[in-house]
From TrEMBL:
<keyword id="KW-0812">Transmembrane</keyword>
<keyword id="KW-1133">Transmembrane helix</keyword>
<feature type="transmembrane region" description="Helical">
    <location>
        <begin position="7"/>
        <end position="31"/>
    </location>
</feature>
<protein>
    <submittedName>
        <fullName>Palmitoyltransferase</fullName>
    </submittedName>
</protein>
<feature type="transmembrane region" description="Helical">
    <location>
        <begin position="62"/>
        <end position="84"/>
    </location>
</feature>
<feature type="transmembrane region" description="Helical">
    <location>
        <begin position="37"/>
        <end position="55"/>
    </location>
</feature>
<keyword id="KW-0472">Membrane</keyword>
<dbReference type="InterPro" id="IPR039859">
    <property type="entry name" value="PFA4/ZDH16/20/ERF2-like"/>
</dbReference>
<dbReference type="GO" id="GO:0016409">
    <property type="term" value="F:palmitoyltransferase activity"/>
</dbReference>
Length: 160
């Protein structure tokens, strides 16, 4: 989970940074006489434009790279926020679905199984359990080793 959340963070950051640099260059690379809707459609989906011959192959690959960065950057950021929220609550996806009284599968549960276990020890303790003691440095420098406070197999219960 540690390396996955770091990967999501760095992918979102890299895609958003690439979008910031690529979009103005894509505007100058594509023809100036195009209307704004043509330019936006070409950057977001360049396939029809190369099929009808409006852009060259180099423009197609650049627009494809830009469109992937524009689409994947916010998507990775939303996934990062979703998983970070689960880390801060110390829940798995199944526990989050059960706590919302939604059945994630077609398996029938007993009544005592629908009550989620409370592992929430506070956001800082939850973050240190999953990400390690130096969690902020881990986001900035992903090569740092992770020193967790638990063994990853057993987790402390909340007192509340």
């Amino acid at each position: 989970m540690v390396y996955f959340i770091r990967l999501l963070f760095h992918l979102a950051f890299a895609c958003c940074l690439a979008s910031i640099f690529n979009v103005p260059y894509a505007f100058h690379l594509i023809y100036y006489d195009w209307s704004p809707w043509q330019w936006i459609f070409c950057v977001l989906n360049p396939v029809p434009f190369i099929l009808i011959g409006w852009i060259s192959i180099s423009q197609f690959f650049f627009c494809l790279m830009t469109s992937l960065c524009v689409i994947l950057g916010p998507t990775m950021f939303i996934l990062f926020l979703y998983h970070l929220r689960q880390i801060l609550r110390n829940q798995t996806s199944v526990e989050a679905l059960i706590s919302k009284a939604q059945n994630p599968t077609q398996i029938l549960y007993e009544e005592h199984d629908l009550k989620p276990l409370n592992y929430d020890c506070g956001w800082r303790a939850n973050l240190e359990q999953v990400m390690g003691k130096r969690w902020l440095l881990g986001f900035l420098f992903p090569c740092l080793p992770v020193m967790r406070s638990t063994d990853g197999l057993s987790f402390p219960f909340s007192d509340a």
